[in-house]
Amino acid sequence: MKYFFQITSVILSLSFIISCSPEPKKTELKVGSWRGEITVQNHQLPFIFDINKIDNSYKIKLHDGDNIIDINDVTVKKDSIFFPLHIFDADIKAKIEENTLSGTYTKNYAEDYVLPFKAIFGKSKRLDQLSSAKIMDGKWAIDLHRKDGTMNKTIGLFNTEDGELKGTILTKTGDYRFLEGKVDNSQFELYAFDGNHLFVLKGKVKKDELKGEFWSGKTFYQPFTGKKDATAELPDANKLTYLKEGYDKIEFSFPNLEGEIVSLDAPKYKDKVVILQVFGTWCPNCMDETIFYADWYRKNKDRGVEIIGLAYENKDDFEYAKARVDKMRRTYDVGYDYLIAGTSNKGDASKTLPMLNHVMSFPTSIIIDKKGKVRNIHTGFSGPATGDYYLHYVEEFNNLMDELLEE
Length: 407
Known about the structure:
The strands form four sheets. This protein has a nine-stranded antiparallel sheet with strand order 4-3-2-1-9-8-7-6-5, with no helix packed on it. The protein has an eight-stranded antiparallel β-barrel with strand order 10-11-12-14-15-16-17-18. The chain has a five-stranded mixed sheet with strand order 23-22-21-24-25. A hairpin with a 2-residue loop joins β14 and β15. The protein is 19% helix and 42% strand. It starts with a helix and ends with a helix. By secondary structure, it is α+β, with helices and mostly antiparallel strands. The longest helix is centred in the N-terminal third of the chain and has 19 residues, at 2-20. It has helices at 2-20, 284-300, 318-331, 346-352, 388-406, and strands at residues 32-40, 43-54, 57-64, 67-71, 75-77, 80-84, 90-96, 100-107, 114-121, 138-145, 151-161, 164-171, 174-175, 179-184, 187-193, 198-206, 209-216, 220-228, 254-255, 261-262, 273-279, 305-313, 337-343, 364-368, 374-379.
C-alpha cells in the first residue's frame, strides 16, 4: 500500500508539472528573404521565398525562377508557420526558430506524400556560388530515357544571366517551366519548384554533348542525354490530338460548379466560337494557360466567343474538384465557365471524350467554330518560360481566333 501511495504521489506531481508548463512561446517570424530546401530523393531542391508583413498579416512571394507566385493565405501561430502552396493542394508546415524553419512539404491529394523541408533566413539567391560559364547556352536536342528503352525527344533552351543558368525543356505535352541553377567546371545543376512540381536535374556537359539525371518529386527518375542542335524540332502540336474517324463534332454533358448539367447545345454557346480547355488545377502548364486565357477572354468576350474549362482533378469527388477549381477561378479572376469533367488519369479522361483519338496532355485546347465544327486541337501549352515558342503560339492563336470570329 505504501508503494501505491508513492506511485500515486509521483503521478500527481508529474500531472501538476505538465499542467503548469508554459505554452510554447510565440517566436517572431523574420521578414525578408529565405532560402528553402525540400529533400527530393536524397537531393536538396533549393528555392527562394520572401516573407512580408502587411497589417499584421503575413504574405509570401515564392520565386519560381523568373516567375513570382503570390501566397496570401499564411498562418503563423506561436512557434509554427503553415501555408498552402498557391492554387495547389499542397502545403508547408514548419517550426519557427530564430533564423531557420524546419518541417514538411505535403501533397495532400497523394497518399503518404510528405517530404522534409527546411529554410534559412537572409538568403536571396538559390545557390551561393555561381559561374559565368556559358557552355550550356543554346538549343539542345534532349532525349529522356524511358524504362522501356524508348526515348522521349525534347528540346532544351538554356542561357546564362549574371552567373545563373536559366532555361526550360519543351516536350510534346508542355514545358518544364522556369528551370534555374548553374554550370561550373562542366557540372550543371538545375531546379524548379512551383508549389506542385519538384524538379532536380544534374549532370555533365562536354563540348556539345551533355549527360544527366532527372529526379521529380518523391519517386520519378529518368536519365537523359543531349546534343546541341539549333535545328531541333518537336512534332506539330496541332496534329497530335484529333477527331476519330466517324466523328465530326464534340459532345459532352458535365456538371458546372453549381451541379447543373451543361452541354454545348446550351443557348449561351449557340452561334459562337467556343474554346474547350481540357485542364487540371494540379497542372502548372494548365496554370500558365489559364492565366493567358483569362486575360484574353476579358479583352475579347464581347466578340462572340466563349471558353469552357473542362476540369479533370485528382480525386473522383465533385465537392473536392469544385473547391480546387473555384480556388483557381478566384485566384486568377477567371470569367469563363468551368465544368467538372472527370479525373486526372489520361485513360479515364479519354473515355469522357470518346470522339478524340486520346487525351494526350493536360492541357489540350479544342477550338470550335460558330457552326459547331472542330477547327483546331492544340496539345499541350508552351508557356512564358519558352520565350519565342510562347510568342509564336500567342500569334498563331490570335490569328486563328480573328479568322473564326470574322466568319
